[in-house]
Amino acid sequence: MYSGIIRHKGTVARVEGTGVVSYLFIHVPRAFKAGLKKGDSVSVDGVCLTVHRRVARGIRVEVMHQTLALTTLGELTEGARVNLERSLHIGDELGGHFVYGHVDGVGTIMNIGREGEATLMKIKAPDHLMPYILPQGAIAVDGVSLTVAKTYDDHLFKISLLDQTLRATTLSDKRIGDHVNLEVDMLVKAFIESKHLYGENKSI
User: Fold this and answer.
1) Looking at residue 14, which CATH number applies to its domain?
2) What does the pLDDT look like over 26-55, one tens digit per residue?
């Protein structure tokens, strides 16, 4: 489990493997790598992955073929920057919201604009995710914990990014047409699905 507060970024060195399992070699900051060991969980652009081993200047993580197909990790090439987060431990400050690293779908950036000191980004989400994307609710975009500023009828939602968030994450690299990993707030999803399962008038 993660908080969605990004403090480190990495750079893809290379991708190996074309079978069931592939490997991402990622150059990471020394502070991020310190103490990491084989089997540890890390979030890479919002996707929970397992450290296969430490390598010079970074780490090698395992990625299942299905994960590459269902997330933006399948689009990564050498030199691409990625958001990194280590898994939470008991006693760690949460800061953002509970992020599981299980991507619910891939969104497409439709518009980027500026309003005052904030950058506004409109993202088109898969149809099945919109019931869980609520104004003022939480959402993880490429692993970054953010607040939904507004939703629209055409499967769009808007997020507002402060300059500090842009500097700390790879969202500053994004352009119109780029894809991003989306994970809806699991608490909202569980509540809505339980209402559907048990009915509006029954206690849950």
Assistant:
1) 2.40.30.20
2) 999 999 999 999 999 999 999 999 999 999
| Dist CA 149 CA 170 (whole Å) | 20
From the list 177, 94, 186, 109, the residue with the least C-alpha distance to 140 is 186
Q: How many domains does the chain have?
A: 2
110: Cβ contacts below 8 Å, ≥ 6 apart: 122, 123, 124, 156, 176
Q: Which domain holds residue 61?
A: 8-86
C-alpha triplet 54, 40, 56: angle, nearest 5°: 10
pTM recorded for the entire structure: 0.90
Q: Which of 52, 86, 120 is the last residue of a domain?
A: 86
Note the helical H segments in the chain: 30-33, 65-70, 163-168, 186-198
Contacts of 97 (CB under 8 A, 6+ apart): 3, 4, 138, 140, 145, 185
**Helices (H), ranges, 60-133:** 65-70
User: Does the residue 100 lie in any domain?
Assistant: no
Q: What integer pLDDT is reported at residue 91 of this predicted model?
A: 65
Q: Do both 117 and 77 map to the same domain?
A: no
- pLDDT (tens digit, 9 = 90+) per residue, 115-129? 999 999 999 999 999
